[in-house]
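Handout, section B. The chain below has 53 residues.
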Amino acid sequence: MVSVVASGFMEAAEAVGATEGFSIVLCDLKTLLESGISANLVRDKAELISQKK
């Protein structure tokens, strides 16, 4: 079981952005633990973010 607590945000949009990152990391870790192979979700998200800039 994993618990993540994110607090101290002034606006809802900040919290949504932060929790999206937690979800991606946790999904990638779950895939790695179950299959032994990373789905590269974190890398793919980082590439998407860098393309927007």
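Note. The chain has a mean pLDDT of 89. Compare this with the example in section A.
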